[in-house]
Amino acid sequence: MTALSRLAADNVTVGYDHRVISRELSVEIPDGSFTVIVGPNACGKSTLLRALSRLIAPSEGRIVLDGRPIASYKSKEVARILGLLPQTSLSPDGITVADLVARGRHPHQSFMRQWSTADEAAVLSAMDATGVTPLSGRLVDELSGGQRQRVWVAMVLAQQTPLMLLDEPTTFLDIAHQIDLMELFTDLNEQGSTLVAVLHDLNQAARYGTHLIAMKDGAVVAQGAPSEIVTAELVEEVFGLRCVVVPDPVTGTPSVTPIGRERSRVLRA
Amino acid sequence: MTTSTLETPTRVDFGARTVVLRVGPFSQRFPLRTLLVSLALLVSTLAVSVAALCLGDLPLSVPEVVSALLGQQSGIVETVVVEWRAPRVLAAAVFGAALGVSGAVFQSMTRNPLASPDIIGLSAGSYAGGLFVIIVLGGGPLLIAAGALVGGLAAAALVYVLAYRKGVQGFRLIIVGIAISAMLSSVSTYLVLRAKLEEALTATIWGAGSLNPVGWSQFLPSLVVIVVTFAILSALVVPMRQLELGDDAASSLGSRVEGARLGLVLCGVALTAVVTAAAGPIAFVALAAPQIARRLTRSAGVTLIPSALLGALALSASDIIAQHALPVTMPVGLVTVVIGGGYLVWLLIHETRRRP
Fold it and tell me: Using a CB cutoff of 8 Å and minimum separation of 24, what contacts does A241-250 make?
């Protein structure tokens, strides 16, 4: 696979307050992929995503965006190429859906140009793509968790970036809304966006991701197409969890079933 | 609306009527309600200001005041209107606007309606600085102003440094600010206690916050600082709104988070410090104006222009009350404390009910 890559981590050492999370880590995001980063808690997957989105600066090495170190770009330049759906989001009291989505246009605006026809068109199509157009004039505070997350996705879409990073986008949603959102991401990916998501659910990662990066203790253990790399051995190595991997009955992608302590009622019966 | 909902709309529905202006490369949108509220506040402030120019020991009619302002009067009427009343009336409006904006900046940054310069230590710093000059150095009005400015800036710097941990986060800023406020007020109390009676009297009068001593020579330097700060803020309005989305979102949307925040803090501090320097600590305008403006405009978060106009109206009206409501003239700081204190009680009850 000759993976072209617009975004890559080149030998980066990243961490917080002198606590190193990952040392000399190199990762390439294949262009056009839906890359999913998986791994146990505190394995450094969110840290990697934050480094890729320039929220934290690596102490060594560099993040490369379109052939140039990301630190050499202006903030707004990066924001026109790279969008981020943050893990925690805040919205000002009393903001409406359309107003929040419109704030995604910031990298395309200037002091004089605050609401161009291009801004309006981008906001309309972002709300349309995420199905939040009927909520347009509603207050964000009044929405359900699933609706609110869609609005945030719409905000990132309005940014109109070819690359989108998603930090645990489904964590606080119920299963139906999780699937709903993952399918939206798949649609966006098929329409040409390169996506990088941090996910907890291995089965969803294998089902919707086109490229998987498995991390443990700050290092990449395996990467590649889910059907090639998701095995019982890998899951045991990365998560320390004994499991069986069977084809997903719907999609045929690898599906992980934990063995646990074999106390299930079915087995005892 | 009879059109099919399946059609994609061509205009974004913001939930409230929005005015869109597009001329050449210039484009902007304003919620209609914000425009109308701002206009109403502006007209009210003008009306209150004209009333303030008419009222006093020498009552004047509106035509007399207007002609005096146009330079068509001479003698006592001209002196009273142009030399005595006008600087004070303008100062009330401009200082009120500065306090309203200062409060809005801090409340936006901290996402907390309680965060105002009064609460996070700036006013206490300015007060202590002014007292130090009056009591220890025995300085006159100009030195008092300088002391208040330095005190406010020093307190702000101290709060900022103590609250700084890889960036400044709102809640920590408030807590540190309250602590510094408490310490500074004990310093102030100590200063007053060791003062001579005469100095203590000067300190108390200044410390109550009054527009009484404000003439053109005190007002114009403050005006320059306030206008420059407003100009800088106009470039920081957009980053300020983006910061309300959280640091990660603001940063990934292309704002330089820490740079913008430092600029906002400096502007907020400068506005409060310059007003305190000229008129003494005037409490609660910065706290209440942004929140009342937000409720009137139903805007998303606090907004600067309505906060400025509401601050202007509040301080102008308070100063009329301070001068003319009772047989004796009171310092305007006393009026804002009474009105604002009531507001603070309401806010605390409202906030605790909303977030149990």
Answer: A248/A203, A248/A206, A248/A207
* Beta bridge partners of residue A34, listed in sequence order: A195
- Are A75 and B255 in contact (CB < 8 Å)? yes
The token pair at A118 is: 């291009």
Residues of A in contact with B20 (CB under 8 A): 115
Q: What ipTM was predicted for this assembly?
A: 0.90
How far is the C-alpha of B290 from the C-alpha of B268, rounded, in Å?
A: 13
What pLDDT does B163 receive?
A: 84
Answer whether A197's CB lies under 8 Å from A38's CB: no
pLDDT tens digit sequence for B280-335 = 889 889 999 999 999 999 999 899 999 999 999 999 999 999 999 888 888 899 89
Q: What angle do CA A209, A213, A214 make, to 5 degrees?
A: 120
Residues of A in contact with B256 (CB under 8 A): 75
**Cα(B40)–Cα(B53) distance, rounded to whole angstroms?**
20
* CA distance to A191, A192, B14, per residue, from A186 (Å): 9, 10, 28
CB pairs under 8 A between A and B: 132
Phi-psi map region of B102: left, alpha, beta (phi>0 left; psi -120 to 50 alpha): alpha
Neighbours of A166 (CB within 10 A): 25
Any alpha helices (H) in B16-140, and if so which ranges? 32-54, 62-69, 75-78, 86-110, 122-131
**DSSP three-state, residue A226:** helix
Backbone CA torsion sign across A129, A133, A139, A141: negative
Q: CA distances (Å), A183 to each of B28, B255, B277, in order?
A: 35, 30, 60
Phi and psi angles of residue A171, each rounded to the nearest 5 degrees, phi first = -55, -40
Would the CB atoms of B298 and A138 count as touching at under 8 Å?
no
All structural domains of chain B, each given as residue ranges with its CATH number in brackets, are 31-325+332-354 (1.10.3470.10)
Structure tokens at B356: 């149990």
Q: How far is CA B22 from the centre of its chain?
A: 32
The CA dihedral of B58, B61, B62, B66, to the nearest 10 degrees, is -60
Nearest to B12 among A95, A114, A136 (CB): A136
Task: Give the pTM.
Answer: 0.90
Please, which contacts does B142-150 make with residues 24 or more away whose CB atoms are closer than 8 Å?
A: B144/B206, B144/B277, B145/B218, B145/B277, B145/B278, B146/B277, B148/B273, B148/B276, B148/B277, B148/B280, B149/B273, B149/B274, B149/B276, B149/B277
Residue type for position B170: G
> Strand, coil or helix: what is A106?
helix
Cα radius of gyration rounded to whole Å, chain B: 22
**pLDDT tens-digit readout, B57-68:** 899 999 999 999
* A240: exposed, middle or buried (Cβ count in 10 Å: 0-12, 13-18, 19+): exposed
Phi/psi zone of residue B56: left (φ > 0), alpha (ψ -120 to 50 degrees), beta?
A: left
